[in-house]
Amino acid sequence: MDYEKLALELFNKMHSLRKAKPQKNIDGALQGEAFALHFIALQGGAVLPGAIKREMNVSSARVAQALNNLEEKGWITRKIDKSDRRKILIEITEEGRSAAEKNDKAIIGLTAKMLCMLGERDAKEYVRITGRLADIISNCNESYETDILPSKGQS
Description:
- The protein is mainly alpha-helical.
- The protein has helices at about 5-20, 20-30, 30-45, 50-55, 60-70, 95-120, 120-140, 145; strands spanning about 75-80, 90.
- The protein is about 70% helix and about 5% strand.
């Protein structure tokens, strides 16, 4: 089997998928404000921004921007940690919890609709393969940056 040819085909199909509107909605739920709000809601209490940063795997600046936007909408509050005044705790408001639930329901509904369109057999296989890929990728020792992208000064 020519895995390089298959990899190119997969890359092209993934690019088409990422451009599709439903996929953009799902991608949005897995990053940015929607993901941060979902994560905070799941914690059931106060959350440190660092925990959000680690879960989202983004920069502190990106988390700060998402939190600023969520706070402007009234969906979270920030409070100083009484036991360590250097720390800021993030808490979800009732409006934020409601928004998170509404967003989660919409994304699950959209995803279920797409899986339904695949049909039972293909939907189950897609979920199985996606899970297997997630396991393989999380167990890889090499990173994209060191294997694919040239180091500074190399061409």
